[in-house]
Design a protein that fits this description.
Blueprint lengths: L3 E4 L4 E5 L4 H12 L13 H6 L7 H4 L6 E9 L5 E7 L7 H6 L10 E7 L21 E9 L6 H17 L10 E8 L11 E8 L5 H13 L7 E2 L3 E4 H12 L5 E9 L5 H12 L7 E8 L21 E9 L5 H15 L38 H6 L3 H11 L18
Antiparallel strand pairs: 1-2, 2-5, 3-4, 3-5, 6-8, 6-9, 6-10, 7-8, 7-12, 11-13, 12-13
Helix pairs in contact: 1-7, 5-6, 5-8, 8-9
The protein binds flavin-adenine dinucleotide.
Length: about 425
């Protein structure tokens, strides 16, 4: 089920739930010149991705992919155990509107089996029948640049400086009207491998909408600001230019290359990590005693248009962060599972030690976690000692409404997993 078509009756693009992101991007772009601001991986499926929110390289410019959801078809199971397909839309008059809302960030595997999504931007012109005006149009040209930080010379002070530079920059350049709303960047710190070439300590890659005024200068200024005063010998690449779809494919190639066994954690950051947290990253990422093949911590640009969506308008509640942080460990040998998982758990616990081992929502610096990077440790009192329940980290104030929708649409709790929405009293 991977079709992508334009549905004239609903005046919206229909995408079946089994479609994978790159296929969706290519069909939308080559067919109508439009896109969705979704994830940067080629192989992620629409089924879970949209239900959990979905963000990527164009999100600072256009918001989350789920912000453009117009309708969803879901196979639900009623109290008698009968399955049926229903369509729920964004229309204010739709009695099933709540079920649509639950799929704008409420997470996969909760309410039923999604079979189709329809997309039309909420600000698309009314009564417009031209499909090319109903979803965002990606930039015609993308500029790409990078600054690399070789491990040699990257001491503790350099980690602090780099993380501070990056955090402060995002705190000041992440509103929707900033000329930098067209920028997407990842600052990636790499773990030191157990053996062989230690590889770089970090890279900061950046993509900029090349059609914005002064784009190349803006991009160079960004890379310079990130590397400013960092020790060692940061190496800045030439700026290159490419069509948007080529940039999307390039990014996906990098994302999808690190296959293996994974453990992944996330945090929404309103500010960059502080010096004490930078020290923790320095220690963990430079120790050689860990059973991992590829550990990394990535700070991805967030904010921009994402943060213009009103609280409660969607089920994706994190609307004032400027960085999405990903903490990941990848390895191949199943025997290494306990050690590799434990390493990442300890890193994360230590980073957020002052708030019970988790990025508690609503604080000056942190705002919870991303349900599309689900982590069962958030529901485990050994790793979450904050007294803040897992669902608050993922859903904040959206959870009680999600619980009501769950009770109405999945009364038998057919769709259930460790982090699924629970219909009863919050636990
Ligand atoms: C390599 C990689 C890169 C990623 N990059 C990004 C990124 O750039 N941006 C981003 O936002 N996220 C990213 N993600 C996370 C991604 O959004 C989630 O993993 C998402 O849930 C994937 O959806 P899926 O359908 O492929 O996955 P699955 O693993 O099949 O499903 C995930 C969850 O959704 C449920 N689900 C799946 N299909 C349906 C359906 N049809 N109906 C109801 N529930 C369903 C499942 O039950 C499960 O609970 C990435 C993940 C990976 C593995």
């Amino acid at each position: 089920m991977n079709a992508v078509t334009y549905d004239t009756r609903r005046r919206a693009f229909m995408v079946e739930a089994g479609a994978q992101l790159m296929d969706v991007y290519k069909k939308l772009y080559h067919g109508w010149g439009v896109t969705l601001p979704g994830g940067t991986s080629a192989t992620v499926g629409m089924g879970g991705h949209i239900a959990g929110g979905g963000y990527g390289a164009l999100s600072r410019a256009f918001g989350l992919a789920a912000d453009h959801l117009y309708a969803v078809e879901v196979v639900v199971v009623d109290a008698a155990g009968r399955a049926r397909a229903v369509v729920a839309t964004r229309e204010r008059t739709d009695p099933r509107r709540d079920l649509w809302w639950a799929h704008t960030g409420g997470g996969g595997g909760n309410f039923g089996v999604v079979t189709r999504y329809w997309f039309r931007s909420p600000d698309a012109p009314r009564h417009c029948f031209d499909p090319s005006r109903l979803l965002p149009r990606p930039p015609g040209d993308i500029l790409a640049g990078m600054v690399g930080f070789p491990r040699e010379g990257m001491d503790r002070a350099s980690y602090r400086r780099l993380i501070r530079n990056h955090g402060r920059w995002h705190e000041h350049h992440s509103d929707a009207h900033s000329p930098y709303a067209g920028l997407y960047s990842g600052l990636v710190f790499y773990g030191r491998p157990q053996t062989g070439d230690p590889g770089p300590a970090a890279n900061c890659y950046a993509y900029m909408d090349g059609t914005r005024p002064d784009a190349e200068r803006l991009l160079r200024d960004y890379l310079r600001a990130v590397a400013d005063g960092v020790g060692g010998s940061p190496q800045t690449s030439e700026i290159s230019s490419m069509p948007w779809i080529a940039a999307a494919e390039y990014l996906a190639g990098a994302q999808d290359s690190d296959v293996g066994r994974h453990k992944l954690k996330s945090a929404y950051l309103r500010r960059g990590h502080n010096d004490a947290q930078a020290d923790i990253l320095y220690t963990y990422l430079n120790s050689t005693g860990n059973r991992h093949d590829f550990a990394n911590v990535t700070f991805q640009s967030y904010g921009g248009r994402i943060n213009t969506v009103a609280d409660g308008a969607t089920a994706a509640p994190h609307r004032d962060s400027v960085i999405k942080a990903i903490y990941m460990n990848t390895w191949q040998d199943p025997d290494a599972d306990p050690a590799a998982v434990d390493w990442l758990r300890r890193l994360y616990r230590d980073l957020f030690a002052t708030t019970g081992g988790v990025p508690v929502p609503g604080r000056r610096d942190t705002d919870g976690c991303y349900i599309n990077y689900p982590d069962i440790d958030m529901a485990d009192p050994r790793w979450n000692t904050s007294q803040v329940p897992w669902h608050r980290l993922y859903y904040k104030d959206a959870y009680p409404r999600l619980q009501r929708i769950k009770a109405a649409w999945d009364p038998r709790d057919v769709f259930s997993h460790t982090l699924s929405v629970k219909a009863g009293p919050a636990r």
